[in-house]
Amino acid sequence: GDGRPRLSVIGTGYLGATHAACMAELGFEVLGVDVDPAKIARLSRGEVPFHEPGLPELLRTHVASGRLRFTTDVAEAARWADVHFIGVGTPQKVGEAAADLTYVDAAVESLARAIDRDALIVGKSTVPVGTARRLSGRVAEIRAEQGLPGQVELAWNPEFLREGFAVQDTLTPDRLVVGVAGPRAEPLLREVYAAQLAADTPWICTDLETAELVKVAANAFLATKISFINAFSEITETVGGDIRTLADAIGHDTRIGRRFLNAGVGFGGGCLPKDIRALQARVSELGLDRTMRFLAEVDDINLRRRDRVVDLAVQMLSAAHGTEADAPAPRGGKTTGPDRQVLQGKRIAVLGVTFKPDSDDVRDSPALDVANRLFTAGADVRVYDPEGNANAAARFPRLEYVGSADAALEDAELVLLLTEWAEFRALDPEEAGRRVAARLLIDGRNVLDVAAWGEAGWTVVGLGHRFDAASLA
Ligand code: UDX
């Protein structure tokens, strides 16, 4: 080789596939490893199994050049690479708040048993604090038991990439954080990240615990910021006021900052929701039951946004159809909010089901949850998402999925914009108005120009804004 460390990436999901392709782009030889042969076969053909702008091009280029290869054989990686990145998932355990560490544990164990040379194992997955220290001990134990040759050290290097910007975030991150427990990790990782260091990316080299905590602290802070503005939405929805102006105004204070203060249907995805739950579970295990209790509130505020969309749909349809929104619930009905009876048979267009734009990910998606709740309540829901239809249909096959925004809008009595794809922001209110049966819209992300839509005869209610039923009477 050219003297540069050889890299392996264990786990070729979202995080691992992106990391592998980006490291190849930076000139390294990279071997991606996964237990799923179908995934490995697709990646080896240069196909990305999920939607991520820019990634297919990188993957194709470096699979073709031979710099990036894939295998299901972890022993091959163990013999070949100098640095092994672990990018496997740490999903929420079924029915529990805690993270499931099965895949991380298995990846580290299998490497520790197969490496027969000097090497570095670098965890990138998000894990509960204390995991890296435990795994570091486990590696030492296995190697001593088996009398294996070579020095193997473990480090933790959390990943902060956002879906939709994964390539950019990996190639030019805001900062690099590495937690180390021995002398070999820092110099090796400086070689791996030489390009970023040359670009003056802040380099934070610390202990294992701090590195693990940086990741969960960042995500807990971001989730809190979103729920903070969404809690104020509950106030402005009641008393009046403009949530966007409020966010702009406090955001001008550089200590606060405007980003992640967009009020709407709330956060979802594979990270924020599970990370705040796993953090609460972990600190409780540590005997710190009260420490992260506010995150339970952050989670609740976030989930209440979905109730708000359903309630608003009921109120708007009731006002438009002249029925009392708060008529008594049907006999035996368990509804405590407004009477959801009005949803029966109403055609509702749902624009967007992914948890955010430029992604096909529907994990913990507020939009998909709302669509499903309306369907369950009896509405005739038509869903369109530019990239998310297939993943959504795999979860909720009974919803109706259509191939365009126009098809979703056809004869709709109410339109819900729940994911702020550029395509929806660019909709022409006049043209959209000609397709629907009623010009009623809930802007679940506060991205439409309400005045322009109003001129075209629409009643648009953004989340965080008061709805006045009299306006439709
Ligand atoms: C997040 C973190 O940003 C990233 O650093 C970490 O590595 C993984 O988790 P991601 O899940 O890709 O990334 O999505 P992000 O862009 O952070 O958005 C998360 C959710 O918050 C989305 O559902 C989004 O719609 C919502 N959101 C974001 C808001 O509701 N309001 C905002 O102001 C910002």
| CATH H-level homologous superfamily name of the largest domain | NAD(P)-binding Rossmann-like Domain
N-to-C CA distance: 75 Å
Number of helical segments with 4 or more residues: 19
Largest sheet: 6 strands, parallel
The proportion of residues in beta strands is: 5-15%
Q: Please identify the top-level CATH class of the largest domain.
A: Alpha Beta
Principal-axes geometry comes out as elongated
What is bound: which ligands?
A: uridine-5'-diphosphate-xylopyranose
Shape-level CATH architecture of the largest domain: 3-Layer(aba) Sandwich
- SS elements, strand count: 14
State the secondary-structure class: alpha/beta
CATH topology of the largest domain: Rossmann fold
Rg: 25 Å
Describe this structure in words.
- It catalyses: UDP-alpha-D-glucose + 2 NAD(+) + H2O = UDP-alpha-D-glucuronate + 2 NADH + 3 H(+).
- By secondary structure, the chain is an alpha/beta fold.
- The protein folds into 2 domains: 7-204, NAD(P)-binding Rossmann-like Domain (Rossmann fold, 3-Layer(aba) Sandwich); 207-473, 3-Layer(aba) Sandwich (Rossmann fold).
- Helix content is 44%, strand content 12%.
- The protein has a 6-stranded parallel sheet with strand order 3-2-1-4-5-6, sandwiched between helices. Strands 11-10-9-12-13-14 form a 6-stranded parallel sheet.
- Uridine-5'-diphosphate-xylopyranose is lined by residues 159-163, 219, 222, 226, 260-262, 264, 266-269, 271-272, 355-356.
Task: Provide a compact summary of the structure.
The chain has helices at 14-25, 37-44, 55-65, 74-80, 102-114, 131-146, 166-171, 185-192, 194-198, 208-239, 243-251, 272-285, 294-320, 366-376, 389-395, 405-409, 422-425, 429-435, 450-455; strands spanning 7-10, 30-33, 68-71, 83-86, 119-123, 152-156, 176-179, 203-206, 347-351, 380-384, 400-401, 414-417, 440-443, 459-462. With 473 residues, it is of the alpha/beta class.
